[in-house]
Specification:
The chain has 234 residues and is mainly α. It has two domains: 11-84, Winged helix-like DNA-binding domain superfamily/Winged helix DNA-binding domain (Arc Repressor Mutant, subunit A, Orthogonal Bundle); 92-231, Four Helix Bundle (Hemerythrin (Met), subunit A) (Up-down Bundle), CATH 1.20.120. Helices cover 63% and strands 3% of the residues. It has a two-stranded antiparallel sheet. Strand 1 (64-67) and strand 2 (71-74) form a beta hairpin. The longest helix has 22 residues, at 92-113. It is elongated and about 60 Å long. It starts with 10 loop residues before the first helix and ends in a 7-residue tail after the last helix.
Amino acid sequence: MEIESIRVERLYLKVAKQLSQQISDGNIQSGERLPSERDLASSFGVSRPTIREAMIALEIADMIEIRSGSGIYVRSVASKDGDELPDDAPGPLELLEARYHFEGDAAALAAKRASKAEIAEMEQALAEMESENRQAESHESADEIFHLSIAAATRNSAIHAAIRRLWELRKMTEMSIFFHEKLRSQGIKPVIRDHRAILEAIKKRDPNGARAAMQSHLKRVIDAIVEDGDDSSI
């Protein structure tokens, strides 16, 4: 008996493959401007983050060109194939959504459990983040250290491992690497005041405040990325 393995495909790739097929078949012509991400989300019946991730996949495959302030345009349709799309991996906005939930609760636990030494480590990471932000070349190592320090301060190894894995995927998958390199090239850097608010709530031993500050920070990142779609820059 031959059995074909069941593969659950991510929603953004289903959208990207449909659009890729339309481009390959010539139903969407080279040079044609695609509808706005808001309109595409309505047409496909999916969220705007899903459309944003589909656009990233198509951009990586060199099927579209995103022109800031103008729109999303189809590149040459010659020899374009859906197989050129990135591997089926969590999209960058999926990872941010997961971080919103995991890291929000992690911050609340850290507010209850963090030692003075762990809080000092967060303070040091924040200081290094400020230093990195002043450099011409963008870095994110201090940002990662800050967030993983909070995860470690939960004193829950499973939570720490889950959050560490989300950060690893952020640096490993083709989608996320492309996405974050583009953000860095646009000069977008970690927002110090958001991270300071998270740290202050942890120092005050305020679990609800720490959770709210972390989730506010990550939601602001998600919203800024999604809302930016109408201006056609990622």
